[in-house]
Amino acid sequence: xxxxxxxxxxLIAEHRPTLDQALEAMRTRAYWSxxxxxxxxxxxxxxxxxxxxxxxxxxxxxxxxxxxxPGTDGWVGGEVSPYGIELGVTYPHADIDTxxxxxxAGQRAWRDAGAETRAVVxxxxxKRISDRTHEFALAxxxxxxxxxxxxxxxxxxxxxxxxxxAVAYAYVEQVRTPDTAEWTKPQGKRxxxxxxxxxxxxxxxxxxxxGCNTFPTWNGYPGLFASLATxxxxxxKPHPRAxxxxxxxxxxxxxxxxxxxxDPNLVALAAERPGEGIAKTLATRPEIRIIDYTGSTAFGxxxxxxxxxxxxxxxxxxxxxxxxxxxxxxxxxxxxLAFSVSLYSGQMCTTPQNFLVPRAGIPTEEGPKSxxxxxxxxxxxxxxxxxDDVRANALLGAIxxxxxxxxxxxxxxxxxxxxxxxxxxxxDFPDAVVRTPVIVxxxxxxxxxxxxxxxxxxxxxxxxxxxxxxxxxxxxxxRTVREKGAMTVGAYTTSEEVEEAVREACLDEAAQLSLNLTxxxxxxxxxxxxxxxxxxxxxxxxxxxxxxxxxxxxxRVVEIRSEVRAEA
Amino acid sequence: xxxxxxxxxxLIAEHRPTLDQALEAMRTRAYWSxxxxxxxxxxxxxxxxxxxxxxxxxxxxxxxxxxxxPGTDGWVGGEVSPYGIELGVTYPHADIDTxxxxxxAGQRAWRDAGAETRAVVxxxxxKRISDRTHEFALAxxxxxxxxxxxxxxxxxxxxxxxxxxAVAYAYVEQVRTPDTAEWTKPQGKRxxxxxxxxxxxxxxxxxxxxGCNTFPTWNGYPGLFASLATxxxxxxKPHPRAxxxxxxxxxxxxxxxxxxxxDPNLVALAAERPGEGIAKTLATRPEIRIIDYTGSTAFGxxxxxxxxxxxxxxxxxxxxxxxxxxxxxxxxxxxxLAFSVSLYSGQMCTTPQNFLVPRAGIPTEEGPKSxxxxxxxxxxxxxxxxxDDVRANALLGAIxxxxxxxxxxxxxxxxxxxxxxxxxxxxDFPDAVVRTPVIVxxxxxxxxxxxxxxxxxxxxxxxxxxxxxxxxxxxxxxRTVREKGAMTVGAYTTSEEVEEAVREACLDEAAQLSLNLTxxxxxxxxxxxxxxxxxxxxxxxxxxxxxxxxxxxxxRVVEIRSEVRAEA
Lengths: 568, 568
Description:
2 copies of one chain form a homodimer.
Chain A: H1 8-28, H2 50-60, E1 72-76, E2 91-94, H3 96-105, H4 107-113, H5 115-131, H6 133-144, H7 148-174, E3 180-187, E4 190-203, E5 206-210, H8 221-229, E6 233-237, H9 244-259, E7 267-269, H10 278-283, E8 288-294, H11 297-306, E9 311-315, E10 321-324, H12 330-342, E11 354-358, H13 371-385, H14 389-396, H15 402-411, E12 416-419, E13 423-424, E14 434-435, E15 438-443, H16 447-453, E16 461-467, H17 470-484, E17 489-492, H18 496-509, E18 513-515, H19 548-552, E19 555-563
Parallel strand pairs in A: 5-6, 5-8, 6-7, 8-9, 10-11, 10-17, 11-16, 15-16, 17-18
Antiparallel strand pairs in A: 1-2, 3-4, 4-19, 12-15, 13-14
Helix pairs in contact in A: 1-5, 1-7, 2-6, 5-7, 5-9, 6-7, 7-8, 12-13, 17-18
InterPro entries (chains A, B): Ald_DH/histidinol_DH (IPR016161), Ald_DH_C (IPR016163), Ald_DH_N (IPR016162), Aldehyde_DH_dom (IPR015590), PaaN_2 (IPR011975), Proline_metab_enzyme (IPR050485)
Keywords (chains A, B): NAD, Oxidoreductase
Organism (chains A, B): Streptomyces dioscori
């Protein structure tokens, strides 16, 4: 092996303090992030500024991203930005029978490097990605359809935070058992029994990351870095419409691994031809021992049932509920909820879908509001928030794909429309499909309506569901989470009794609850090192980002013990 | 709820120091156990001595163990000791549709008690069991067929150690996240965003423990206590031939729970009628969210494939290999191996089955030994160890069931017999079936022989497999672990190169390795707080006892967050 340009010693010196801060943040769950959220924070100390990031992104367009991977048997690509640009980037297509064995070749050295070195190599990868945040932001924007600022923050620092969190959890899990131990058991008057024991975290094999279209980096980094930090090689299979952000990630990872003296093939890309559908083939290969997946319930369930040789971590669909029972900050509630349903046109797994409102209305500090008033006021709040096209475009981004567009258009037929979806023009990107949210009134007790609101309607579609009482709302919440899953639950209430009932429902059904949010924090947002994303305990996801369970089964500990021999 | 006889405060005062010692032992992996191994250590400070334990056991025989469980619809039982005694104990048979809802009733209070209180209640249960170790020893002896001393140690202190280890892992996993956190995110010149967050470990639901015949307590306690300590109710479904030890465990647990002010129905027994086969029914009930199972590969695989609503932890069959390549302590090696194959008539999931010996022989400090000599000397060592009937009975115990007896008898037909199995009479229990181990010579390269040694032959049957070289032995070891799984691997070698190759094989295939054991530690034994039992990374088991992964997914953390409101 050639002398490494980056030594473990240097990397530890540079990144160990950050790792320790991450571990401390996870312990206290106080606010912490090493990755700046403001675009202007970049451009110095080796990081790309806005213009440089734009230039770097533009230079990628129409070109070939050659990752120098073994078994490359062609070039594929065909991403079209939801903003209308053809990216024109092509990526290596892999002969899997060549690539997978090549990925295994470097695993022994990666395993023997130990948990700390793996952690700091991962942090160096994240550092290089962070330096290119402006470039990544444009890659995320033009594959997911997120507006620039969201693509920048969620696709950049927040995704990097989630990756680092996974590295920190993986590190601390591996060092819970010492490398070696001396075990001496007294035997009364006889000599004690004495053993020397060595404990080595070993990887499961090759991990497969199946990326998603809407949050390629944010949803992809936890699994990628958790697997890599625990010694596994990682094969990245991006969504065909969102290849670029993960391909760039693979490029950075391969470069850093090589510079640190490891085999770059520990991380590789599996891009596919249109309609090739390689995920099923890859997921059931015997070499693949870990799978991380974000996407549809149907395919997530298929993976759990069929990829039996692997540990499978899935984030699937859910139906998110907000109970609106009472409030002492009616305007704050409305503007908070209006933002929640508008952000990225509701194309988040955490966006609220069903607003459960008592049909008798709700008490507020402005006096009682009828069900109709609440719904009309929410509609007005959304309208107000999105009344200015510049702000609307900055919040909504673009509709990610034709399926979402079709759902928005069909929503008006599902019930009485309280707020119609509007088309908005994006002057910078005239081909972008931009739509404001639609709000439809439904009756909680009607079977036909129930069939509508008990299914996930991914995109900017919300249902204002009239219910008989707070108790019915809580019961419906319970049933929704149990049967359909939920990534988030929200509730507005000034009643201790109702609050307690909602809390109990969420504790019983393992749903993450945001109570009475009226300010600048939204139910759809979670912060790494503090908030859990999903619970792993309801049908929406079988894992939470990030906790011990997310990392502990990605490696196993092998013990080698031998007798301590008496010295001659 | 009635005033509790045991307060959490008292239990914490009593057991917290032990919990802390357990946590420290798990961190250092040095020797530690709070449970004395010597039968004479009992009889004071409230624990039963030998005669009292015998009297307590005798008082159980022919009686009804009434656990006062809801939904009891009859009485079942029919255990016959492998030593020939009919136990005549009857147990409640449960109407599951009544019992399961009753088990859920107490879960909220158990959840709200928090991780520390749950841990110390579990430790109190273990303390009460420890006090009755002599009684439990006889219950284990007369269900598993283990000899008294082994039933005492493995069924008593070692099982209690494994239970406590699971409690300690469960505790520390739950307190990695604080109960509450204040999260304050700076917003430049604007007011910071501030949230109060509560984090609550919540149970998955009801856990099912499916017990085994040979080690009802040792293999049962880790899952039982890991699930209970993480807030789940636990339904114990014992093996029909080994009900008593787990029924007594359930009795103790129910009593302690009630005394501590919790619902005793958090732990319940599901005994079954002969041939009822309720495990499949229970395992697929929606209320059952966790399953711990020790037993056949066929049923373990069935559980993994069909109990999809549950987290399934299985210990199944494996084929354990010992490579005998060279040694500098030939006699020590032979006597160590002779003990390993004799202990409990080889009826351990950790007993070595295949001895791989180069056909050209092995170097030793006594000079070279041919393959035939090694096998003959091993046979002689076993004969010597078991030459005295009293000692033989004390080591072998009794054959647990007719299947094992049939396998021993059939073994002579599998190849050239190097050591024939002998019948031994147990003067105290004339009906006990006692057999010494059989050793059969096989050829590693012959397909017919391969079919024999590549299958688990549970019981006192070992194969001395002639191989062409050390390299072939290592390759065969790899293949055996990969295809059949292994709970243990042993190796004897003085060659650094061979040792390295064996180490690499075990690291690659996730197998636990004991090297050159020649003294009083045996490949089939592991010590809680220090050794891992299984790796969870090969087909023999999907979990290791005990590690973070064994506990981390038995609960989920629910976060409830709300805004910090400015003070009025």
